[in-house]
């Protein structure tokens, strides 16, 4: 046992927020509380919890999780749950390092030896995906994901969807699988058309065909297509996930470990999904700590399907998942898979000197947006 002696956080490029916890015996754990575009809000939440939780037993991970959830009256949501994720991941890392085992050993042990992975191609305005897909293929990937469309009107020209179909056909011609991310930017009148246009070309999945507040619309789309539907990055707890499982409108759940309350909650969400025959494919366009945390849950989850890796993603300007750690070789992709992380805790070796140096005067990342030809705001 050991009481929490100190909690710190570090804002680092390109858009990440790392958390460090030290107990009174000198054991250390690292977490990630990144929430793209809302860093200052998460930092404010962490400030309050730092003042409160110093002095608590670091081993009591579930107690601290329940304290954070049940004694604050207001609960859930991206800011609250991202801050909680940073603490939760760090506490799991600290405990497992102290015991000298990977975190997945504390989650029941591994059920696989390697993990299927995919990477992003294209950007917010995807164009030449063939070159980028070939690059990923040469890096060892067999699967990729790309945005379905650029900005799109509520009711746009049907021809605006043609490029998406051509991009999928291009990637498939290279012998790769491709997930198509609607990104919540496609509204129902266009989403119905796009999913039907893509269906003959068999995407690996379609992601966020509509925003999560439109569960009935997602259910309707699920009933008209054989394409697997993936979503979940904007669902922040098991209570958020439950109605989608009950509605039978999701095939692949994509919780984000840095947005859903950390390892503790993602493991519970994974178990819920298993009961509904829904696959787990964690969302992770974030940093190395978040990815390592996902890997720990993936290793111990029988319904795990595929893991997103943010290596080289277009948002990573000024930092990548190979930065901030001394063992970047753990992210090597071979034949579409990465090996399980075998070191203690998260299995990555944080370069604290680099974290501290690059956190000085680090700017916050501001979410981009789209403006339509009439001056209207469009979904990003």
TrEMBL record:
<dbReference type="GO" id="GO:0008869">
    <property type="term" value="F:galactonate dehydratase activity"/>
</dbReference>
<dbReference type="InterPro" id="IPR029065">
    <property type="entry name" value="Enolase_C-like"/>
</dbReference>
<dbReference type="InterPro" id="IPR013341">
    <property type="entry name" value="Mandelate_racemase_N_dom"/>
</dbReference>
<dbReference type="InterPro" id="IPR034593">
    <property type="entry name" value="DgoD-like"/>
</dbReference>
<dbReference type="GO" id="GO:0046872">
    <property type="term" value="F:metal ion binding"/>
</dbReference>
<dbReference type="InterPro" id="IPR018110">
    <property type="entry name" value="Mandel_Rmase/mucon_lact_enz_CS"/>
</dbReference>
<dbReference type="InterPro" id="IPR029017">
    <property type="entry name" value="Enolase-like_N"/>
</dbReference>
<dbReference type="Pfam" id="PF02746">
    <property type="entry name" value="MR_MLE_N"/>
</dbReference>
<dbReference type="GO" id="GO:0034194">
    <property type="term" value="P:D-galactonate catabolic process"/>
</dbReference>
<keyword id="KW-0460">Magnesium</keyword>
<dbReference type="InterPro" id="IPR023592">
    <property type="entry name" value="Galactonate_deHydtase"/>
</dbReference>
<dbReference type="Pfam" id="PF13378">
    <property type="entry name" value="MR_MLE_C"/>
</dbReference>
<feature type="domain" description="Mandelate racemase/muconate lactonizing enzyme C-terminal">
    <location>
        <begin position="126"/>
        <end position="228"/>
    </location>
</feature>
<dbReference type="InterPro" id="IPR013342">
    <property type="entry name" value="Mandelate_racemase_C"/>
</dbReference>
<keyword id="KW-0456">Lyase</keyword>
<dbReference type="InterPro" id="IPR036849">
    <property type="entry name" value="Enolase-like_C_sf"/>
</dbReference>
<keyword id="KW-0479">Metal-binding</keyword>
<dbReference type="GO" id="GO:0009063">
    <property type="term" value="P:amino acid catabolic process"/>
</dbReference>
<protein>
    <submittedName>
        <fullName>Mandelate racemase/muconate lactonizing enzyme domain-containing protein</fullName>
    </submittedName>
</protein>
